[in-house]
Amino acid sequence: MNQDYIQPNDWSIIEEGFDVDRVKSSESLFSIGNGAMGQRANFEENYSGHTFQGSYIAGIYYPDKTKVGWWKNGYPKYFAKVLNAPNWIGIDIEINGENFDLNSCTEVSNFRRELNMKEGWYNRSFTAVLKNKTEIAVNVRRFLSIELDEVGYINYEITPLNKDAKIVYKPYVDAGVTNEDTNWEEKFWEPLDVKKSGNEGFVTAQTFKTHFKVTTFMHNSILTNGELTHISPSTIDALSDKIQFSYDTIVAKGEKSSIQKIGGYTVSLNHENTVTAAEKIIQVALHKGYDQLLEEHIAAWAKIWEMSDITITGDVKAQQGIRFNIFQLNQTYLGKDSRLNIGPKGFTGEKYGGSTYWDTEAYCIPFYMATKDQQVARNLLTYRFNQLDKAIENAKDNLGFKNGAALYPMVTMNGEECHNEWEITHEEIHRNGAIAFAIFNYYRFTGDYSYIPEKGLEVLIGIARFWHQRASFSKEKDQYVILGVTGPNEYENNINNNFYTNYIAKWCIDYAYEQIQKVSLEYPLDHKRIIEKVALSETELHEWKSVSQNMYFPKSAELGIYLQQDGFLDKDLVPVKDLDRSQRPINQKWSWDRVLRSPYIKQADVLQCFYFFENHFSKEELERNFDFYESFTVHESSLSPCVHSIQAAKLDKMDMAYTFYLRTSRLDLDDYNKEVEEGCHITSMAGTWMSIVEGFGGMRVKNDSLHFSPKIPKEWEGYSFKINFRNQILKIAVTHNETQFSLEGDKEITVFVNEKPIEVQPNQMVTA
Amino acid sequence: MNQDYIQPNDWSIIEEGFDVDRVKSSESLFSIGNGAMGQRANFEENYSGHTFQGSYIAGIYYPDKTKVGWWKNGYPKYFAKVLNAPNWIGIDIEINGENFDLNSCTEVSNFRRELNMKEGWYNRSFTAVLKNKTEIAVNVRRFLSIELDEVGYINYEITPLNKDAKIVYKPYVDAGVTNEDTNWEEKFWEPLDVKKSGNEGFVTAQTFKTHFKVTTFMHNSILTNGELTHISPSTIDALSDKIQFSYDTIVAKGEKSSIQKIGGYTVSLNHENTVTAAEKIIQVALHKGYDQLLEEHIAAWAKIWEMSDITITGDVKAQQGIRFNIFQLNQTYLGKDSRLNIGPKGFTGEKYGGSTYWDTEAYCIPFYMATKDQQVARNLLTYRFNQLDKAIENAKDNLGFKNGAALYPMVTMNGEECHNEWEITHEEIHRNGAIAFAIFNYYRFTGDYSYIPEKGLEVLIGIARFWHQRASFSKEKDQYVILGVTGPNEYENNINNNFYTNYIAKWCIDYAYEQIQKVSLEYPLDHKRIIEKVALSETELHEWKSVSQNMYFPKSAELGIYLQQDGFLDKDLVPVKDLDRSQRPINQKWSWDRVLRSPYIKQADVLQCFYFFENHFSKEELERNFDFYESFTVHESSLSPCVHSIQAAKLDKMDMAYTFYLRTSRLDLDDYNKEVEEGCHITSMAGTWMSIVEGFGGMRVKNDSLHFSPKIPKEWEGYSFKINFRNQILKIAVTHNETQFSLEGDKEITVFVNEKPIEVQPNQMVTA
């Protein structure tokens, strides 16, 4: 059953009413993050009901010992887990001698959560009656500063409503945390040191194996009616991995008592001495104070929204959906640090592990290119460049390739492969294609060619070498084939000649070849440096071309479609619409062999190829392939509906496009896949953005210009978005009658609307 | 490196010289068993070097919690482990105050192990100098009685050679044992009770979850120069799961001291009160005494050999190989108990788990049919009949089949599937075919049709229903296809239209259909009973036939061969002979994806079909397919060389046949696959028997008669074997010049030699 309790609202995610069965889902949906850290919307005070506790720090991971039933050669030794980080938000509270716990109150009313996406804060308020009959009103606000990204702030206010109350606040930091998904029930954190000083507490711990050192800190202030008190804490708990203070205060009925807790992490990735760094950052935060920090935080979010907001009028659920997606993407990754990437669950859960999938290149980069400075996308590309050596090592040591062939990992934290299903890790090799495509896409969008001679070309060569070696010659077909792969549709394993994989393999070789020629002409010094470094010969280049020129592509002349793989038409081709609803989702209802031999498609596969290489195919071809494959697609991947939405829009199937749009944008809010408790689907949220910009807006970059073919779902009155195109910011507003363009920048640009050129002058509005 | 330390000998396995690096291998090779229990050749006394401790009881298993990296629907909850049983052989020994341990002696000489296969005992002798300079001569003999199959006997003799010695014997039984292959480091045995009485000790324990109750017992006698002493034991250890006695004795230099230990198991599968049963069986054994028990044991083995021996003259290694194989098969399974089956490692190790694979039907049944009473093979068939309900449940609940379709498990202890790799468990469905084929084979060989109306027909119907539902219709091919399988060649996963699978699927349907007609005519009451029970309609039968009549088989007209699967010829077809030796075994050197897309074949696949259905194909077809597939076969399964040996013999490729014969018969003795430390490959040993009888002897059953086409490797002078054919025992002796037949029985039979009929009279020799 899809849940449907989130209140429709333009700018906020709002839950009203307390329901213990929704706690874990809401913990995911109300998560906050600032690119450097984040956490699920766990209650600050102790909660004895069902909860999934999770705090996360970007770049800090744990290589958990691999768990498999039967070991296979080439499996990595570890699976990098998104690490549940020490808890700094915790505040145990005692009221008139009773531990306050929402799960044991006799009454909870006016319960309301709000995630204010415009301003970037999370608020929880309610009235509760404890077992001891004390009635309290509570309001808690929490935010993780964008400006000071090592710091979060909690303002926890309690007003006793029916009697005076002795309130004891017991804030703590605790490194004694575990992951829910440990393979071997092991602890991941080794406590090193606990320190306290006045109102400040510090717990330093390091990860086992990876030895990331983290100081988790807190500073607490107690206020009455907004005035700072000077209550001194006693220390109740100074274990090796936890420190907890206790503040006693007497609050008269009707008075507002509050604790303001500053907390966060300083990590050895950024600091030599993490304790000293923590002490300093507390001083900076205290100096600014809660109000100023929040103000600056709101301003930072305003700046983010200024660039990345999409407005939709006339459809509040659609509006809320897209903003939730954009908000989460920005909470997860702000592009400041090229060591980081975009984890599939961001800071909302620990499932899947690893921080980097092909999702980054295939789905996220377009969003970050268009809504941030181009350096952000460049950082994402550089992340892969920095891991090229490990991709070469992976191909060589684990998989038997040679001569500098690079296979990027399916899942990684540091460039090493860390996923261990052979059918994914060893066979889902198309990921290499998206990484090359992203280089092409970056240049196409930004016009910044310098990345290729500087870094990109080496990556392209390693990838081309991989495809060259991975293809094999079929005497039977007299062509090159690629056997034993898993395509983007993970409901097929060990198939031969996946159209998408073969196509992108050929493209990668051709593109690398072209760039070598271009760099040779335009950047001869870089060319020399690189060719010498990678020892690339003319003979090898010649062999590459013979593979790319003779690549085999499965197709059906009769149906006029490309085949997802050899033998696809042998399947029992019952369309999804004729599949009994009780059998879905098939990945939860069917055994794996049945999923595999069925015609059902988890996510765009042939259609992913049509998405990447749109201009290689005619619209008629697209339509035939879309109609065929859409009928078998079950969209059980979060990455699926967006691509179908874009293509449906292109084919003027607007009702379908709109349905897919809602599905992608509200996947988590409406919990389509019945798993939001485990966290949100962050990377596919970039696909939602693409559904509007590339789908409805029809945006493309061709020949260094922006092209549009705007469409609008009948359910909407209008929508608008902005594109940062080569340092000029273009705003596009679409209604049923017209499209308006306006430009923040200093020189005019020409855009194309349905292939017709339109001049847009700075700070003028043009209607098309 | 293949080891090569076993002395060639017609009747014994002999190791000379003590080498700590060989201990684990020898523990496997010198294992003993009696069908009901067995154990590795672990030393009785404490040994601090590398050892793999293992004792096993037939039918007693543990359902270990499944371990997988990523759970998939339909996976069984447990993997049934061959359980390391309580140790009853242990005797700690102290000599002049020093714990005797071969690993810490200053000198060990004249070390010799002998496994006397003719008489069924295992002997170990050596001279050792302890650190305290006491020199002793030791001789230990152990056997597990065939007659009293709950009892084993150890006679452990020590002669101090250079000084008098105080010898303390500390025999024990210990249920505090663990499996090396636990998934979660859990204990499998729960101790219940420890009891002692005079020289007898009892430890009763039960398995967790399955609650098999086992009393492990011992009785000890101390002798000096063969005369019973009356030393009373003290109890040194009476833990909850172990009991240990201590006997002190002073032995003069040159005198022979010995401990005779009776031990074994009584189990709740056979006894209400296992302790009482243990007490009784000790009395029976004591009453007979060591000498008589050993004598009866030798006589029992003589009877086994009388029927099952194969002699080979002129090639002692070949002779030793086949006897080792026959000996191990008989140690593992004697056919007395239809609850038992033939575990892949017998009583020699714990690897693989489960007791029953398709190996039983495809490889073992022919051996047991021809060398035992036909009831033994009937018991093996009945084992599957008794598990039909669970096979139906497995197909329905785990895999989504309906209407009584049965899929037998890939690995089982009790009828439930307990293996958990989707590519094996869910896709290696051809096992269902071998189970039907065994019914056909049993009737073909024994002429006992009664099994089919009584039990077999229901099994055949369940299996036919499975294939009917599992096949799907390809509009593209206008034929039925079977998609997404793993064939006998496990170096392919999720392939389409595996020739062997499609062929046996069609055969199963046709055979079930025929048997329904036959039973209908000849056993109308059984027919009515069964058809009503399984609710089989004419419509369904009609549908079966349309599947079997329109089954698709992949082939190459150009090469004149059947294709192992769709697309096989797209592979990079480099024959094994051109594969660098350093790359083998490929399953240890290559990542799984590379194995899968290679053309290399682990074991006979298309050729398995030619083996089962020989008379469906011409010899020319066989030769073309053999030549093609043999060139790609790496024989990395123990089940592979035997089938190739039989077919090579048929094709007069005698050198090849001989090479494969040696490989199959001495697989463990010469440790071809570098893994004998983990135990012996029991089930493939039946394939060795087939290599001689069906390969060189060319034995077939056609139209109720035995046919032969004898051939002989040039390395041999002659060979002979016996066949129990329909309660008459025919002996066949082959030399380069002639074949002799003689018959133990009461009526003449006609055999065919190279299609020529020969009359053999009882107790007369006929030469052909």
TrEMBL record, chains A, B:
GO biological process: carbohydrate metabolic process
Active site annotation, chain numbering: 490 (proton donor)
Glycoside hydrolase family 65 central catalytic domain residues: 323-690
One of the record's GO molecular function terms: carbohydrate binding
Chain ranges of the Glycoside hydrolase family 65 C-terminal domain: 699-760
Gene3D superfamilies, per the entry: 1.50.10.10, Glycoside hydrolase, family 65, N-terminal domain, Maltose phosphorylase, domain 3
All copies of domain Glycoside hydrolase family 65 N-terminal, residue ranges: 14-268
SUPFAM superfamilies: Galactose mutarotase-like (SSF74650), Six-hairpin glycosidases (SSF48208)
Pfam family for this entry, one: Glyco_hydro_65C
Alphabetical list of InterPro entries matching this protein: 6-hairpin_glycosidase_sf (IPR008928), 6hp_glycosidase-like_sf (IPR012341), Gal_mutarotase_sf_dom (IPR011013), GH65_N (IPR037018), Glyco_hydro_65_C (IPR005194), Glyco_hydro_65_M (IPR005195), Glyco_hydro_65_N (IPR005196), Malt_Pase/Glycosyl_Hdrlase (IPR017045)
Amino acids binding substrate: 358-359, 602-603
Keywords assigned by UniProt, alphabetized: Hydrolase
Superkingdom to which the source organism belongs: Bacteria
NCBIfam families: PRK13807.1
Family according to the record: Belongs to the glycosyl hydrolase 65 family.
Protein name (Swiss-Prot/TrEMBL): Glycoside hydrolase family 65 protein
Species of origin: Flavobacterium restrictum
Taxonomic lineage: Bacteria, Pseudomonadati, Bacteroidota, Flavobacteriia, Flavobacteriales
